[in-house]
Amino acid sequence: MKCLVCKNGETVSGTATVTLERDNLTLVIKGVPAKICENCGEEYLAEAETSHVLKTAEEAAQSGVRVDVREYIAA
């Protein structure tokens, strides 16, 4: 797909590191499957990966985690 940000690059399959912050929680998830622009590096997550990342963040927030670094594990 053509990159929506730079409008020049094409996206290729790869992995991304997603960092989420909310209130007192900082969550880093490494190895998330993504499409990445070859030109500018913008990362795009598919709906399934986005849902999984957000669910993981919600679970971490509810458990009282303050800072956590995790590897992405497909559901």
Number of helical regions: 1
Structural class: alpha+beta
The percent of residues in helical segments reads 10-25%
The geometry reads as elongated
Low-pLDDT runs of 5+ residues are: none
Q: How many extended strands?
A: 4
Gyration radius, in Å = 14 Å
Strand fraction: 35-45%
Q: In sequence order, what are the helices and strands, one letter per element?
A: EEEHE
> How many strands, what sense, and barrel or not for the largest sheet?
4 strands, mixed
> What is the average of the pLDDT values?
95
Distance between the termini: 25 Å
Task: Report on this structure.
The protein has about 80 residues and is an alpha+beta fold. The protein has one helix and four strands. It has one helix at about 45-60; strands at about 10-20, 25-35, 45, 65-70. Strands 1, 2, 3 and 4 form a four-stranded mixed sheet that branches.
Keywords:
alpha+beta, four-stranded mixed β-sheet, 21% helix, single chain, 4 strands, 75 residues
SSE arrangement:
Blueprint: E1 11-22, E2 25-37, E3 43-44, H1 47-62, E4 67-71
Parallel strand pairs: 2-4
Antiparallel strand pairs: 1-2, 2-3
Short structural description:
It contains one helix and four strands.
